[in-house]
Description:
Number of domains of chain A: 2
Strand order of the largest sheet of chain A: 2-10-9-8-7-3-6
Mean pLDDT of chain A: 96
Oligomer: homodimer
CATH architecture of the largest domain in chain A: 3-Layer(aba) Sandwich
Strand content of chain A: 5-15%
Radius of gyration of chain A: 21 Å
Order of helices and strands of chain A: HHEHHEHEHEEEEHEEHEHHHEEHEEEH
CATH class of the largest domain in chain A: Alpha Beta
Helix content of chain A: 25-40%
Low-confidence stretches of chain A: none
Distance between the termini of chain A: 59 Å
Amino acid sequence: MARINENYKKLQEGYLFPEIYKRTVAFQKNNPGVELIKLGIGDTTRPLTMAVVKHLHEVADEMADESTYRGYDAEQGIMELREALAKHYKKYGVNLKADEVFINDGAKPDLANLQSIFAGNSVVAVQDPVYPAYVDSTVISGKTTGYKDGKYEGIVYMDCTEENGFFPDLPKQNVDLIYLCSPNNPTGAVATHEQLKKFVDYAQEKKAVIIFDAAYSAFISDVGLPRSIYEVDGAKTCAIEVNSFSKLAGFTGVRLGWTVVPHELCAEGTKPGEVQALWDRRQTTMFNGASNIAQLAGIAVLSEEGQEEVREVIDYYMHNAKIIRDGLAEVGLEVSGGTNAPYIWAKTPNGLDSWEFFDKALNEAHVVVTPGAGFGQRGEGHFRLSAFGKRENIEKAVDNIKKNLKI
Amino acid sequence: MARINENYKKLQEGYLFPEIYKRTVAFQKNNPGVELIKLGIGDTTRPLTMAVVKHLHEVADEMADESTYRGYDAEQGIMELREALAKHYKKYGVNLKADEVFINDGAKPDLANLQSIFAGNSVVAVQDPVYPAYVDSTVISGKTTGYKDGKYEGIVYMDCTEENGFFPDLPKQNVDLIYLCSPNNPTGAVATHEQLKKFVDYAQEKKAVIIFDAAYSAFISDVGLPRSIYEVDGAKTCAIEVNSFSKLAGFTGVRLGWTVVPHELCAEGTKPGEVQALWDRRQTTMFNGASNIAQLAGIAVLSEEGQEEVREVIDYYMHNAKIIRDGLAEVGLEVSGGTNAPYIWAKTPNGLDSWEFFDKALNEAHVVVTPGAGFGQRGEGHFRLSAFGKRENIEKAVDNIKKNLKI
C-alpha cells in the first residue's frame, strides 16, 4: 500500500510566482494594450556568446561522427571541464584539485540534493529573506514540523535586515547545516571577507557545514570582495560551494554548474575525504552527469575568448543594475544591492507592505516587481528587481517609475 | 554539528565495475599488445543522426540570437516536447495528456528521485537480478537495515530465473513500491501483456505503485509485446513509467528522458491528481529542467525523419545482438535475451561462477563480459553482453569466442 511522503503537505503553497502571474494577467485583461515590463524574474536575456556558439557547432559535428561521438562520460563531469574550473579558481588564489569539483546541471538541484549526504534530522539554518529552494528541500526531507508566522518550525532563520547590512549574525542555537548565499538572492548584498570568516570560524568550532551558494559570484567586480568562500582560511574544512554557469554565461536553460566538495571537508566523526566520497557515491548512484553538450560548451566559456565575452555580458547586466539603482534613488526610494550583484533590493515607500507596493508599481508604472514577502518574513516591506532584462525594457521601466509612480 | 547520512554506510561497495576495471588493467599489463574487446558496458557507439545534428546546429544559432535566445523553460519540460511524446504514445494505443509527461535528464535520476514523493518507510520490491540504481537509492533513503547473503534486509527481491522465464512471480509479502524493468537490464527478458497485467492487478488490489523502467522499449520490434505499461488496462491508476532517449537515439551523454505520472495514479488516501501534483512540486523545487539543447534535439528525434533514422540505429544494434546470440549458441552456451532487447544474458558453462567465467573469457577470448553476480544473487551463474558496440568489435569478439573459448 503505497503512501505519500507526508512532508510535502507541510509545504506552504508556492505562493509567490503564481500570485504574481494571477495579478499580472488580471491587470492585462482590464488594461488591454498597456505594455507591462517584467523586472521580477531572474532569467537571462543576453544570447550565448560567439565562442560558445562556435564550439556548439563543433560539438554537434563531433557527435555526428562515429570516430568522435561521445556516449557516457563520468557522472562527476568531463575531466577537462573539472580541470578548467580548478584552474579558474586560481584567479582568486584558491587551490582546488579537479576531483574536488563535481559538475552539475545547475545550482538548484545540488543545493537541495546535498542534504542527502547529511543526517535526516540535521538542523538547517537559512538567511531570511531566503531563496526558497533551500527551505522547501529542508521541509520535503522531513526536518521541520509546523509552519507559524511565515516560518517553518525546525529551521533556524538568520535575519538579514538594514541594521546588519543584510548579512546575518551567527545563529544562537546549535545548527548543523548553514545555507549562505553571496552575492545574495534576493537582497543583492555581498559578504565581505570578515563576514564570511566569522561563519567559517563558527562552523569549524561547532563542526557545522556551510553550503555556500555562489551562483552570482561572477558579478563581483570589487577585488576586495571574496568570490569564493575558499578565499577564507579554513573554509575547505567546513564549506561546500555551489556555483553555476546560468547567470555567468546565459546558461539558465542550458543547465550547467558545479559543486565543490573539498577533500579536507569533515563532518562529525569523519576523516578527510569521507564526505567527498559520500557525495561521489550520491552522484554516481543518482545522477548521470550534466549534458555533455552543455559541459563542452562550458569549456568554451572558460577559455580566454569566452571569458572576455562573458565580461561584456556581465557589464551589460551591471549597467542595467546601475540604471535601476539610480532611477529608484532619484524618486526617493531606499535602495541596496545592485553593485557586485544583479539584484536590487528596495524598501517600499510610505510603509506599504510588499504586495501593496506590487499593485502600486503595476498600476501606476506598469512594472512587475517581486514582493519581498515572497522570500520570507524579513522580506516584508521590500521588493526585488532583477537586472537581467533587456536594456530597452530596463530604461522604459525606470522611465515609467520616474514619471508615473506616486510616492 | 553536521553528521552524515549513516544509510550510505549500509551500501556495499560498488564492486562490479571497479573490479572489472581492475582485472582488465591487470590483464593488459601482463599481456601487452593483446587487443581486448569490451562488451560489458551498455554505452552507445552509433553517432547522433542527421536530423538531430541538423537541429542542433539550428538551436546553436537560435541561442546566439537575442530574438530567439531561450532562458529558463518550465521545470517539467518544453511543452512542444511533452506534446510530441504524448503523441508518440498514441502509436501504442496509449492516450496521455502532455502534462502527464515530465521531461527528465535521463532515466536514472528519476528512477531514484521518485522515492522522494513516497513515504520514507515504504517497502520496495525489485527483480533479482536487478539494475543497481533502484536498490542503492532504496538503501540511501533509509529503507533497509542490514545486508546478508547478497541481499539488503528490508528490500523484497523477486527472483527472475530460467524457470520463470526471467519474469518474477508476484511478491508474497506486502510491498508498497515495485520496480519493474522491461525489456530487462540485465536479462534482456521482455514482459508480455499477460505478465504485466498480473502485476497491474496486484498493484490495484494492494494499492501498490509500480515504477516501470521502459528505457529499452524502443528495441521491441515484436508487435505483440507491450512497449509501455499503459498498454495494460488499469495501469494508469498504479504505474509510473520512466523512459529515456539514451539508447533510443544515442543520447547517453546528451542526457534526456521522461517520466509519466498519470493524473489517475493514486496512492493510499490520495485523490486522482494528487500524486501527479507531488511530483510536479518535487520537480519544480529540486530540478530546473533538462538542458534546453537536449530537449530541442529530442523534438528532432521524434520527428518523422528522426524516427526513420532511429529505426536504422536500432536495427544496427539488434543485428549486433543477433550476431552475439548466434555465436554464443554455436559454441553451446545457453542464451536468452537479445531479441527485442539489447542485452544478451547467458549461462556460464560447466557450473563456473560468473567471476570465474569473466576471467576465462578475458584470458581465452580477450572479451570483457559483465559477471551476473554484479546484478544480485540470482545473477550468479550468468553473464551479460551488450549489443551497443561497434559492429567490427562485435564480430571480432564472437570470432574470438568461437575460436578460443574452451568450453
